[in-house]
Amino acid sequence: MTRLNKQEFQAWAYHDLLTNTTRGVLAEYIVAKALGIGDTKRLEWDKHDLDIDGVGVEVKSAAYVQTWEQTRSSVIEFGIGPAKGWDARTNTYAASAGRSADVYVFCLLEGEDREHIDPLEVAQWKFYVLPTSVLNRKVPTQKRIRLGPLIALGPEQCTYDDLKAAIDAAAAVNRGS
């Protein structure tokens, strides 16, 4: 053999869409598709996950059901910690820790019955969209947030079809702050 098959590799490596890392990348792709930028290639480890018209979008994902055998559903929690973001375009790190995105999109794969969960079915996802300015004002140094406290911050809760409008509205809040 002189060359491996890319599709075979992808099927081998990413067949389980419930694994935390693969589900996270899938959530980024779902948001990118909703924004109409699904053909833009993903930049691994960039300072935020997506960029649309100069608006940085950070995508976080969680699910009640995991790949491994569970005795109970997972507690929903998202990482929101400030970090020294790396800019892939300039190959530089930020001088200080902060949240480099303008908008956060928290993606929750709903459902607790493993047999009926399909991460590719966008109707099974719920999205919570929040301007980063709200996180910076209300929880400036917090590293993780559970679903209840997140909802208490007042994010726009939406479905896939309303995601672009919610992100645009959150970006407008940040521009006004």
Automatic annotation (TrEMBL):
Protein name: Restriction endonuclease
Species this chain originates from: [Mycobacterium] fortunisiensis
